Automatic annotation (TrEMBL):
One of its GO terms (biological process) is enzyme-directed rRNA pseudouridine synthesis. This is DRAP deaminase. It holds the Pfam family PseudoU_synth_2. The active site is at residue 189.
Length: 523
């Protein structure tokens, strides 16, 4: 359903700017934000932080610690945090280690430190969560008896806290926006929109996950792809494997997980040279291979039209990766274990800056990579670094170090224990001393340059989870997204043909009120 309302006035904008969580009011039961662009108004007309198509959150200080996972044991700290955390470059994490912002067991650690079982990694950041699209999470069904919720997730929102996303995640937003504490049962990629099933209790999450694993789950998606897709049904049976955790890149290779996807064209848009395709697969587990539909569509030469990972000719060439990646190992290629041994084998600190583009690529892959695969990963990393302008984050490191010492009330101390690290109010004012002059466009808390607002249309892909059919929970579906319509007008917000979604949240609150159930109580 598409709605429109007047553009916010300057007074409204000032109010929005001062909110802890900046958000334009949205009508309930629709995925359309509460403001249209208006005639003659372009995206550049909006001041930073005031785009009504985006949802913002005020930055906050966040100290956190994580214990070493089994797969990290025996690996260098720099390699682990670069490949596992993924949201910053290797140079950023090297500076973080050298300056003591990222520490191991409370003390400064060299980049070549080899992690052991029981080690703890500490970090302090001023979290600048990226904006997400200002589409609400739509609650389609609440079953208090079976303790599950069916929702439609907007694109751009991760399910769990990950990387730079914490409060802008499905589980946090469900609690913040609707007062419903949820537990995930199935997952969707951050860029993908559509159907999800959440549990209302931890026990229900375990039970539902088991039911999914034991029974057949039929999943149906819809995608908008490049080119004229064949009219006949097409089946792709190709195994998939993640070869670069930093970029989340998946390729087709015999060493991967088995994956079968069935495609059927719904319509063809000759003006845009794009097709809308129905995508189906049946699995005995909810944990299907990552990026299954995206990579299988690319394999056919019809990648999702706005997929930043799998559809750019600058990275994949004119054929857009059709037929998959060459799997012939590069002559100078090394296995992950050999590359890691070369780095861990010496006790001397790493004096030379590691080449971000190539030298650590083999560390992230479980198989030998071809020269083509390595070049693709290198190009994708360069694109990410250019988009995020990572060089400026060197200044963030030294600011964060000062804040860390003030927040924790202590310098790095070899005798420090877990109990010595005090919990910190994330809404506490900045402990840093403000500079004499702070130019416009810098954070008033940590004094670093602020990124421009992203284009909302780059925060999601044309892939939507449309329908799930399960033996125990029945069939659940959403309307077709607006961009899947045969006569799409170019506006991605809302549903095809003006379809509406019931206000299930309102109905649930009324029912609980009648039954005398307090919000958040177990039923």
């Amino acid at each position: 359903m598409s709605t429109s309302s007047p553009l916010p006035t300057r007074l409204d904008q000032l109010k929005i700017q001062n909110q802890d969580e900046t958000e334009i009011d949205r009508p309930s039961g629709t995925s359309t934000p509460g403001a249209d662009l208006g005639e003659g108004l372009t995206r550049s007309s909006y001041p930073k932080g005031m785009n009504p198509k985006l949802r913002y959150i005020k930055p906050y200080w966040w100290p956190y610690k994580t214990h070493v996972k089994q797969r990290w044991i025996g690996r260098q700290i720099l390699e682990v945090i670069t490949t596992e955390f993924r949201d910053r470059s290797m140079e950023y994490y090297r500076h973080a280690l050298d300056s003591g912002v990222t520490r191991v067991n409370g003390v400064t650690a060299r980049p070549d430190l080899v992690l052991r079982d029981g080690d703890r990694i500490d970090n302090t950041v001023h979290r600048h969560e990226p904006p997400i699209t200002n589409d609400p999470i739509l609650v389609l069904h609440i079953d208090r008896e079976k303790q599950f919720v069916v929702i439609s997730k907007p694109g751009s929102v991760p399910v769990h806290a990950t990387g730079r996303y914490f409060r802008h995640s499905v589980l946090e937003m469900m609690e913040l926006d609707y007062g419903i504490k949820c537990y995930s049962v199935n997952r969707l990629d951050r860029l993908t929109s559509g159907l999800m099933i959440l549990a209302l209790t931890g026990k229900a999450a375990s039970r539902l996950a088991t039911e999914f694993a034991e029974g057949k789950v039929q999943k149906e998606y819809v995608a908008r792809v490049k080119g004229k897709f064949p009219e006949e049904e097409v089946t792709v049976d190709q195994p998939l494997l993640t070869v670069d955790r930093q970029m989340g890149l998946v390729i087709i290779t015999p060493e991967g997980k088995d994956a079968v996807t069935i495609f059927k064209r719904i319509s063809y848009d000759a003006e845009r040279d794009q097709s809308v395709v129905r995508c189906e697969f049946t699995t005995t587990s909810i944990a299907t291979p990552a990026h299954q539909i995206r990579v299988h569509l690319q394999y056919l030469g019809h990648p999702i039209a706005n997929d930043p990972l799998y559809s750019t000719s600058e990275v994949w060439g004119q054929d857009l990766g059709k037929g998959g990646v060459d799997l012939t190992p590069a002559a100078a290629g090394t296995s992950r274990s050999a590359a890691l041994q070369a780095r861990v084998g010496s006790a001397a600190p790493l004096k030379k800056t590691v080449d971000r583009d190539h030298d650590d690529i083999d560390l992230t892959s479980p198989i030998l990579l071809s020269e083509q695969a390595r070049k693709i990963i290198s190009k994708l990393r360069r694109q990410k670094d250019e988009a995020e302008d990572w060089i400026k984050w060197k200044e963030v490191i030294f600011t964060a170090k000062q804040a860390q010492d003030e927040i924790e009330g202590t310098k790095s101390n070899p005798q420090q224990t877990n109990d010595d690290i005090k919990s910190t109010d994330p809404y506490a004012p900045s402990p840093l001393k403000a500079p004499a002059y702070l130019p416009p466009g810098f954070c008033a808390e940590c004094f670093v340059p602020l990124p421009d607002d992203p284009d909302p249309e780059t925060l999601f892909i044309y892939l939507h989870a449309l329908r799930y059919t399960t033996p125990d929970l029945g069939t659940w579906e959403t309307p077709l997204p607006r961009w899947a319509g045969e006569r799409w007008d170019g506006d991605w917000r809302g549903w095809c043909d003006g379809a509406e979604v019931r206000d299930v949240i309102g109905e649930d609150k009324e029912r609980q009120s009648r039954e005398g159930v307090k919000e958040g109580d177990s039923v």
